[in-house]
Amino acid sequence: MAAAARAGFRRLFSVSAFSPPPPPAARPAAEPCNNLFVSGNYAGLSKRTTSDQLKEAFSKFGQVVEARVITDRISGYSRGFGFVKYATVQEAGEGIKGMDGKFLDGWVIFAEYAKQREAPQPRQHATPSTPPSGYQ
User: Fold this and answer.
1) How many CB atoms lie within 10 A of CB 65?
2) What phi, psi does 110 have (nearest 5°)?
3) What are the boundaries of the region Disordered (predicted)?
């Protein structure tokens, strides 16, 4: 009888009716290109990583045309990601193989092909014939 009571107690407080949310969909991989997106684990690149350091680290794998760490406008520190542009797609692939999962400034970094930026959508402005919303 005690076993039946325990089973009923377990069923009463069971969370089996709860279904966990589906796992996030895998991001589609970007098409191979000569531009790489470089980021880090959790917090991103080190706050002290500079564009010159990024260029120096990736230049071991091909001709780096441009390397840029995206920085905060106010503090000037890294926002945690950057871009490396190689002369060719093949060199970019070598850069990914050589630097993905490696350390830079004491932080593990990740390198992948950058996705093409979508063209910005023009903003929709209210036409003068439509009354403004809110109080009149």
Assistant:
1) 14
2) -125, 135
3) 117-136
Q: How many helices (H) and strands (E) does the chain have?
A: 3, 5
pLDDT, tens only, 51-92: 999 999 999 999 999 999 999 899 888 889 999 999 999 999
- Domain regions of the chain by residue span: 35-113
Amino acid at the residue 31: E
Name the DSSP class of 108. Answer: E
CB of 84 closer than 8 Å to CB of 35: yes
CATH topology of domain 35-113: Alpha-Beta Plaits (3.30.70)
Helical segments of the chain, H only: 2-12, 51-58, 89-99
Q: In terms of Cα–Cα distance, which of 31, 80, 87 is closest to 58?
A: 87
Over 25-38, what HEC string results? CCCCCCCCCCEEEE
Residue pair 95/86 in contact (Cβ under 8 Å)? The answer is yes
Comparing CA positions, the residue from 33, 95, 18, 42 lying closest to residue 64 is 95
pTM: 0.66
